[in-house]
Amino acid sequence: MADAVLFEGYVLYPYRASSAKNRLRWQFGVLVPPAWGPAHGEHSASRTELLMEPRGPAELTVELRFLHALRRTVQQAGPDGRLADTPALHLPDRVLVPWDEATEERATFRVPVADLAGEGLALPFARPAREEYEKVVDDTGRTVGRLVRRGAPVEGVLRLRTTALDLPYRAFRLTAEAENTSDWHPGGADEAADRDAALPRSLVAAHLLLSLDRGSFVSMTEPPEWARHEVAACENRHTWPVLAGGPGRADVVLSSPIILEDHPAIAPESAGAMYDATEIDEILALRTAALTDQEKREARGTDARAAAVVDLADSMPAEVLERLHGAVRSLREITGEVAPPAGAGPGGPDGSGGPPEAGGPESLFRPDTPWWDPAGADPAGPPPEHVQVDGVPVGPGSRVLLRPGLRRTDAQDLFLQGRTALVEAVLHDVDGGVHLAVTVEGDPGADIRREQGRFLYFQPDELSPVEA
Length: 468
What we know:
Blueprint: H1 2-6, E1 45-54, E2 59-77, E3 83-85, E4 89-90, E5 95-96, E6 99-112, E7 121-127, E8 130-137, E9 143-151, E10 154-164, E11 172-180, H2 195-198, E12 204-212, E13 215-217, H3 228-233, E14 240-243, E15 252-256, H4 281-289, H5 293-302, H6 304-315, H7 318-323, H8 361-364, E16 387-389, E17 392-394, E18 399-402, H9 411-414, E19 420-428, E20 434-440, H10 446-452, E21 456-458, E22 463-465
Antiparallel strand pairs: 1-11, 1-13, 2-3, 2-6, 2-9, 2-12, 4-5, 7-10, 8-9, 10-11, 12-15, 14-15, 16-17, 18-19, 18-22, 19-20, 20-21
Helix pairs in contact: 4-6, 5-6
């Protein structure tokens, strides 16, 4: 999962350098040199804060992972064997063009938790300038050119400190700050003063992996009641920490520039990295397979990882592609419980199935029949059109206040925090979950959304009734 964060947006479909969207890359977790950031709306540091419960003489391992950009130029061999820069080198199977590649870098530190009290520790790291050469040969083995990769030096520091908390349990607030300290100023000799010049000195897709050998971390999205106030006081800048590893583990944290949920995972059906997202492998595989031979030659020459994607799509058996076409994570018979167990609801581990009066399992299905069996349908008729929210019946026409929850929300929902909306419909899914379709009051496009049935959907615990 950390690799998915590292290479998110590294190269976008159709995986060719000539594609317009691949000319503006490196969008996530970029820590630029201090001389470039403030004046251009970018930042040179990120801050992670979370709670941890170390046991005994615990040690903390922190790994800062990032991409270090390498500027690749292409040279072609002339009749006399001399090499000269060229905008494209055509080979039978690929077309090589200038491109920014990247190498994966790690700065790993293991420190006793006891050493982080007070002002903590400042742990510097550096990567030197580098220059690499790769000979290019044709299918006969003749040298036809060369690839030159140049990397600029980059320096940084990782600052770690803990703060003891006045809580019923032995807990600390851990602050981890990653900063780019590279001494580079834009507009140097023979160099443009733009973002493109700053990128080779940047920490790209920077994120942290943190691990305790003894103890555990506290979830930032679902903290226990005793830690809720202190978790809310944590300040995270340009990154967000979540529990990593399998469900039930709390000794590893992934602090990512991309907002994730606790225990994120790659879909097991995914056959390989597509470098766009973690959930749309099927459409990317189909589109990649539909590229022309010339487009595939360009993609293979753009980057080795792009070539691997093209080869993956070309070699993917039909049965593997079929596995990407939708997946049911769990099929379970609905028994007579009032609500699904935790983790069974449509919203994930919050288990928001709802009581019977809110359209729970008993109001929709017979308890002795699997949900997928038509005989399990409630013969009494359709599910109720109203649900109880804070003791008030809510249904079509009700006014509500939107309070998107942290667990299931996305960036667009956050903009609706505190807005009032009109309930258009109450919907029930096969798992017994309840969803309220709403239109936002004051939205000039509400009438069009209503005609097209394009609503926003929230669960009962994400809104509250507004008095008439």
